[in-house]
Amino acid sequence: MSNKVALITGSAFGIGKRTAKELAAKGNDIIINYRSSETEAHILADQLAQTYNVKTMALKADISNYNDCIRLVNKGLEHFNRIDILINNAGPYIHDRKTLIDYSYEEWNYLINGNLNAAFYLCKEIIPQMRKNKWGRIVNIGFDKAETAPGWACRSAFAAAKVGLVSLTRTLALEEFPYGITVNMVSPGDIRGEWKEQDILSTKRHESTTETFTKIETGEDISRVISFLTDDNSDLITGSVIPISGGQDVLSKSNHFYYGKF
Is the pTM value of this prediction over 0.85? Predict the structure, then answer.
């Protein structure tokens, strides 16, 4: 049987890149998706192909755009004739803190489209051939405590989209289980910058935490869980939302920052 094919959105950098390495190491062929980082995406695709002896390709698409999502899937299927694993990793995020009334209509639609509608677009195009093959793995990326529908000050659009994605994850899990397709969500905690691509055994991780009981979350912490959820033997894990936060209450810290201004 040929290798399984994984499409990972937003995978030229960060958690997506770390996940691409993890899945390639398991022998999966990889579709790297990027929006603007063309050079980095092609470099990564070449590295994965050479290091793990898998087939790769890099495809440009803005997943907040419906037409781009359709083209992304069509090109992937045209090249590999199948997509077995979908990792909805890319998720637009506006770093500036804004209350709801400060968002423009364009910003709101961009965040909702990229974090929620894109999952619908891609799943709608990919699931039919997963059903045909009677096997599929879909992993969505959330945020800590998304499954509780929490309030998140100054992150209304992102939070609303991801909370909606929780319900979509669980609904798809129910609908697609009879077809051998599992759908889960992984929810990172407070992971930033270079740590999104770091290894668990990183010297930096341990050097940074020698005087505290807190460990710094790394991309490998996330990607290893994603990798397990794509395994053949994870077929009874579906509809799950798995937090990877070291038990930290990330949202409370963020909301406290907002109220601390008053």
Answer: yes
